[in-house]
Design brief:
By secondary structure, the chain is an alpha/beta fold. The protein contains 11 helices and 11 strands. Strands 1-2-4-3-5-8-9-10-11 form a 9-stranded mixed beta sheet, with helices on both faces. Strands 6-7 form a two-stranded antiparallel sheet. A hairpin with a 4-residue loop joins strand 1 and strand 2.
Length: 316
């Protein structure tokens, strides 16, 4: 399939292919627990290391998830030359439901989708970034001088998208409050959402770094009141300049993860993951590696070569 895809790209003038990846020599993921001493809080992470010094991509899981979620993303980005750090947010992770009776799981998950856990997640990102800086400077650490900390990307799905939005430019309280961390240079939110309170234009008008949004025409979660229009409203509210949106036709909330969620009944489209991998990789290559060919692919006809006919793609 990849050989065929490359032929298609060459035939249309493209030599850049975001789906080509190194299949051998990849290190196995490393489980690490980062300790935020200021909050006396553990942050489990799964590190997928690149072969050499490389940019970094942080991933924040959705409600009830873990650092082991979405390895298809981690493995592809790792093979493309990125250090991937998949975080786990205690309090809104799998621990919420694993030891809970099935009868009470939905209620437990709803309770975990709280402002308290939102703030814990935001501070988790800051703590992980601080720890990466220590790793990079520690001569005894495996990651010594291997992290390009000038090129950090942030991404996540669902509650992880909310986390991503918070640390990459979304503001609150009429634009007076922001959790933006300037170390993050580009961000991708899968299943984004507008805040419950405030004007979307005000909330997202402060986003100055490149953003890519991904959603689906049936992207509705069982928890929360966010509908598809709320997800689409995020892109509409963003200021112009290096902003992108993908809408996958008939994709449900789980399209961005590894398996279907309870209550979902549409067949999974195997091409969705290919589109997600291709567009996200071109985005990272453009803004974290300054790859001019990737930028040409991303802003030209590249996306249309991998998307299904009814998928939607726009930029501003």
């Amino acid at each position: 399939m990849l050989v065929y895809f490359l032929i298609v790209l060459v035939g249309t003038g493209f030599t850049y292919d975001p789906l080509v990846r190194a299949e051998v020599g990849l290190s196995e993921p490393i489980a690490v627990t980062i300790v935020d001493k200021l909050r006396n809080r553990d942050i489990p992470v799964l590190l997928y290391p690149a072969k050499t010094k490389a940019p970094v991509i942080l991933f924040s899981h959705g409600l009830g998830g873990s650092r082991h979620n979405s390895p298809y993303l981690a493995r592809h980005w790792q093979a493309r030359g990125y250090h991937c750090v998949f975080m786990q947010h205690i309090g809104s992770d799998e621990s919420v439901w694993k030891d809970t009776s099935k009868l009470f799981r939905l209620g437990a998950l709803k309770g975990a989708a709280s402002v308290k856990n939102y703030m814990l997640r935001v501070k988790d990102v800051v703590a992980v970034l601080d720890e990466l800086e220590k790793w990079h400077q520690d001569k005894t650490h495996k990651m010594y001088q291997k992290l390009n900390l000038q090129k950090i990307g942030m991404t996540g799905h669902s509650f992880g998208a909310v986390t991503t939005q918070a640390v990459s430019g979304q503001s609150a309280m009429g634009g007076r409050l922001s959790h933006f961390d300037p170390r993050i240079k580009a961000a991708m939110a899968m299943s984004p959402s507008v805040p419950k309170h405030g004007n979307p234009k005000t909330s997202f008008g402060t986003v100055m770094i490149p953003w890519m949004l991904m959603t689906g025409t049936h992207d509705v979660a069982r928890i929360g009141v966010t509908d598809v229009e709320d997800r689409l409203a995020v892109f509409k509210a963003l200021p112009p300049g290096d902003k992108y949106e993908l809408v996958l036709n008939e994709a449900e909330h789980s399209a961005f993860s590894d398996r279907s969620l309870p209550g979902e009944n549409k067949p999974r489209n195997p091409n969705h993951h290919q589109v997600i991998l291709a567009l996200s990789t071109a985005f990272w290559d453009t803004y974290l590696k300054d790859d001019k060919e990737a930028k040409t692919w991303l802003n030209g006809d590249g996306p249309s070569q991998v998307m299904d006919k009814l998928d939607r793609w726009q930029k501003k």
